[in-house]
Amino acid sequence: MKIKTVKATWLAFILCLTLSEKSESQKSTLPIAAATEGAPHVVHNVPYKLGNKAWMADLYLPAVTKPTSAVIVLHEGGWRSGSKAGSFEVGCSQLLARHGIAACSIDYRLEPDGGGFPNDVEDVENAVQYLFQNAKRYNINPARIGAFGISSGAHLALLAGYAPAKTFLPGRVTTSKIIKAVVAFCPATDLSKLEGAYVVQYMGELPDSKSPAYIKSSPLTYVKTGIPTLLAHGINDTTMPIEQSETLASALKSANVEVEFLPLEHANHFFALKQSQTCEFAMGKMLSFFDQHL
């Protein structure tokens, strides 16, 4: 896929963010299928697995005839909040689809409701499996699937893209064979180095670099099976230290895995959640990276 201009798609993204910020109650009723030429077709609440109300996806399908690439979009929220109907997730999915890349924005089990590690990773892998197995139905090329996430969603995107076969879903085709590239904004990459009750609640135990659970939960563990990765992280991030991305970028380079690292000046943990030149720059890089690798 040739790299395209991001100006028009960026305006659509800003429109979604601006409208959604007017009221929290409007998040699920955004004009995401606006009646404009070339607008994506949106399919809401597609169950990617049966048995839990969290196992739902919203599909944003470009107005194209040939099978297109696709990206799994994973929301932020510290593993315990957030949803596919969030303003950023809606705007990002619209941006991808208007750019010609299908977006599959999913919900997954959250820590208070049966989530926590590794259940949420299993949910993501099931969603990837669903998209792969139903690619023809949605006019998607199954050989061109990527993953994108921010914060805790970035952590899940990295695990789904890196983890070897049978790490999380024994007996299933590993998603690391399906996902071809991953973009992660301010991700957690080594949970044993993080402080805070939210990490303990998510993992169910205190941080410990020798703990099998913490080893399994950290993308750093799987750099040898890593895939092309774009990392973007605010230098002033006090929620998720930039060292999390720096360490992963260094490890990927040492393992000869293609990685692009964007340390963002004057940006904090929420750089992608507000209108700014930094956000526009990072989203443009995301589109270009997926154009190149999917």
Quote the beta fraction. 15-25%
* Second CATH tier, the architecture: 3-Layer(aba) Sandwich
CATH superfamily: Alpha/Beta hydrolase fold, catalytic domain
The total of helices stands at 8
Class per helix and strand makeup: alpha/beta
Q: How are helices and strands ordered from N to C?
A: HEEEHEHEHEHHEHEH
CATH class: Alpha Beta
Largest sheet: 8 strands, mixed
Mean of all residue-level pLDDT scores: 87
Structural overview:
There is one protein chain. This protein is of the alpha/beta class and 294 residues long. It has a single domain, classed as Alpha/Beta hydrolase fold, catalytic domain (Rossmann fold, 3-Layer(aba) Sandwich). Helix content is 32%, strand content 19%. The protein contains 8 helices and 8 strands, in the order αβββαβαβαβααβαβα. The chain has helices spanning 7-20, 87-98, 119-133, 152-162, 197-203, 212-217, 243-254, 277-293; strands at residues 41-47, 56-61, 68-74, 102-106, 140-150, 179-185, 229-234, 259-264. Strands 1-2-4-3-5-6-7-8 form an 8-stranded mixed sheet, sandwiched between helices. A hairpin with an 8-residue loop joins strand 1 and strand 2. Helix 1 (7-20) packs antiparallel against helix 2 (87-98) and helix 3 crosses helix 4. The radius of gyration is 17 Å and the shape is globular. 49% of the residues are buried. Mean pLDDT is 87; it is low at 1-6, 8-12 and 18-37.
Keywords:
8 helices, alpha/beta, Rossmann fold, eight-stranded mixed β-sheet, single chain, 19% strand, disordered N terminus, 294 residues
